[in-house]
Amino acid sequence: MIKPANWNNIEAKKFEGFPTLPPGAHICKITSAQWTKSKSGNDMLMLECDIAQGDFKGFYEKSQYPPKAYITLGETESSIANFKANIQDIEKCNEGYRFDFANPEVLCGKLFVGVFGEEEYLNKNGDIKTNLKLQEIRNYDDWNNGIKTPEKKLYVPNQTGGYSPSVYSPINQMLDGTSASGQFVSAPTDGDLPF
Prior knowledge:
The chain is of the alpha+beta class and 195 residues long. The chain has three helices and five strands; from the N terminus they run E-E-E-H-E-E-H-H.
């Protein structure tokens, strides 16, 4: 091993960890959009995004794990109403844009207000860890009126060692990635995330 040429000019500094995105509302840009299916067979619009403005612009640019939103379009009125509300929030943030069911990829580059919250999970080693998940899609009017940062979702083991849906999620998350209220929910992540 050869000593670096600038060794004596560099100040020693311990690694302080990777930067973290703070919970709360951030202006986001959609980087990927496609239709997929839930485990129960419902249509779901899967969106990937990155931070579009501010100090954290491009935060997920090099990440293997960009935030994802799964917006379920079921057959119930409440599911359709929730899907429509999320789409209308995106439309409100992008003047003149109207969602095209046949071409969801046109959403790429569109902006929205993403509300991120901390969620605890159990990793492969049995340790409780915390990561940040995209929990809500909102619009600029909500942003201007102030959006409350979500409370941290605490890990509560149920009888099988997983999440207890009645405690884990305020929207009563179901195992198939949809929810009783029709809200989109973030997909669980296995293992530690690199950010």
